Every structure is written in C-alpha cells, then in structure tokens.
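We now fix the convention by which a protein and its fold are recorded. Think of the row as the fold of the chain written in a discrete alphabet. Here is one such record, which you should read through line by line.
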Amino acid sequence: MPQFRRKVPFSGKAKKEQLKAKRNATRSKNSDDECESGKEAPSVQQIHFQAVSKGRNNKYALKFYQESKDVINERKKRAENEIVKMPESALEVDATEYYPEGLEFPKRPYWEYGWSRERLEANETNYFKNYLEKIETDFDRKSLGYFELNLETWRQFWRVLEMSDIVLFIVDVRFVPFMFPPSVYTYVTLKLKKSLILVLNKVDLVPSSVIEAWQQFLKDNYSDLTVVLFSNLPKGSKKNSQKCLEGALSLYEACKRVVNGAINIG
C-alpha cells in the first residue's frame, strides 16, 4: 500500500514555472492536432459556402486554407534563425508585385431580380467554387497570402458595394500596396461607377516622407481615387484627440467633395 508523502514546500516561482509548462504542453498538443488534420491541402469542396445552422454565430466565421504540419514546422525553424539587420533600402518594394495579372477578388456573378433565393445562392456558390479552382490552377498556393474562403463574407461585401454611394476602403499606411488590390479600384470605379475613397490609416506611425510618397504613387496610378489621411492615436491627451478629430473632418470633407456638397448622414 502506498504511503502518504510528506508535503514539500512549493514556492511561488516554482508554481509559476509549473503553470507555464502546463500551458506550453497544452498549446503544443492543440497545434499538433490541428496540423495532423491538415496534412493534406484541403480541396475547394471543403470551403465554407453556407452557414450550417440557422443561427448567425458561425455564418461569417473566417475561413482560410489550413497549412500542413511540415509547412508550420519549417516556419518554426526559420523563426529560430539569427535576426539579420537589413539596410533601409530593403524596406523598398515594388508596389505592383503583390497582385499579378489575373489575381483578382471574386465579384458577384450575373443575377436577376426574378430569381428565387435557391437559384441565386446556387449560382453564387457555383461561381465561387469555379473562382477558387481557377486560383489553384493559375497560381501556386504557397505564393499566395491568406484570403477569405467563406462565401457568406463575400456576399456581404458584394451587397455593401451595390448599396453604397461612396465606398471607403481603409488600409494601413505601412502596407498600402499589399492591402489595396487594383482590381477593387477597377471594379468600383469603372464597373459600378461609384466613388472610392482610400483612407490611409495610422499615418502617425510613419515619417511624413513615406506618406507623401504613397500619396504621389496613388495619384499617379489611380486617377479617380480620393485619398484621405487618418490617425488612430490612443486616447489620453488633447493633442491625440485633436489629430483624430482632424482625420474625421478630413474624411467628412472628402465625402462632401465627392457628392458636390449633397451629403446626408442622417
């Protein structure tokens, strides 16, 4: 029969290390389980086309391709490499390299008001499936960034574009070409014939020279685009509040110019 062991003093530091080890073990197990389920790349038939329940909790859940365990492990190994400091010139990028020709966002397919809901949804589902198959055929998935695979999210995007008089597209000023697909500009301004305002957010995080460079780039490449600067500074000082107010007023004035003063925000 086992004997009772005498209790050993347990310091706060030891307790903290025990909890840390337990969390790491749990995190590692969850990561391995997720990777095992995604060893093989998922096919487009597994994409989340429609909510499976009547509730809205899962309807707009983010859906992405799941990376294999080998890919994740390789990234972990690279993360352990020594950090090499690069020259400032390494920060310069070709603004056109992120969206090569043929890589566009899914657009709402042709439809008619007289169609039933079932026909409309079936048409959109078939279009989206073909869109993803074409992406997989034309491009190496490893070279692509994350993009939304939930059709419900795209449906909402289509309807927002159709219902809006002015489209506001917000991007981080540090990643302008990465976050602003040229196909969005072309579709909104040429196909839908609507005004597009690009909001460069977080301008307080970069030098003024960077802001001016992006403004000039956008002016040269997107003639019908209105650009507005916006600062998302934390609360706490009158100076920060004033800058946030200036950004909101600039956006309001830009909307007024687009509609020749006939703005209605009521």
Summary: The two ends are 79 Å apart (CA to CA). The longest helix spans residues 12-37. The CA atoms of residues 152 and 246 lie 35 Å apart.
